UniProtKB/TrEMBL annotation:
Listed InterPro entries: Ser_inhib-like_sf
SUPFAM superfamilies cross-referenced by the UniProt entry: Serine protease inhibitors (SSF57567)
Key words of the record: Protease inhibitor, Serine protease inhibitor, Signal
Name assigned to this protein: Serine protease inhibitor 1
Gene Ontology BP annotations: ecdysis, collagen and cuticulin-based cuticle; negative regulation of endopeptidase activity
CDD domains: TIL
Any one GO MF annotation of this record: serine-type endopeptidase inhibitor activity
Taxonomic source organism: Onchocerca volvulus
Signal peptide: 1-20
Length: 118
């Protein structure tokens, strides 16, 4: 049997199975279904945010492998669409950066400013 034909057949079967699984769980685009939910990133978190090696509950997740993040309204968006946090007392051309580890509970020590005009 032709190896190319076997490869194409296997690819079609796998793609059909994955697509059927996604439709069965009805995740909103661009979310994906995960039986063993991993580490979903939120806007403002680093790609290298710590992640426990355990399964989260099964469900629809934003996949960080596709550059997606969960925004504050719960939507799954590209990390480039995430809003930047501007500090109220900072000059207009400065943005506030936070340490990804302290994203949910920001302390003054974890804040720093970066000039975005230079």
């Amino acid at each position: 049997m032709n190896p190319f034909f076997i490869f194409i057949t296997a690819f079609v079967v796998l793609f059909t199975y994955v697509d059927a699984d996604q439709r069965k769980h009805k995740c909103k685009r661009p979310e994906i279904w995960e039986d063993c939910g991993g580490c979903e990133l939120k806007c403002g978190q680093s790609d290298f945010a710590p992640c426990a090696l355990r399964c989260n509950p099964p469900g629809c997740y934003c996949s960080p492998f596709y550059g997606l993040r969960r925004d504050s309204s719960g939507k799954c968006i590209s990390k480039h669409q995430c809003p930047t946090r501007k500090h109220l007392n900072a000059p207009e051309d400065f943005i506030l950066e936070t340490d990804s580890v302290t994203y949910r509970n920001i302390s003054e020590d974890s804040m720093k400013f970066r000039n975005i005009t230079s």
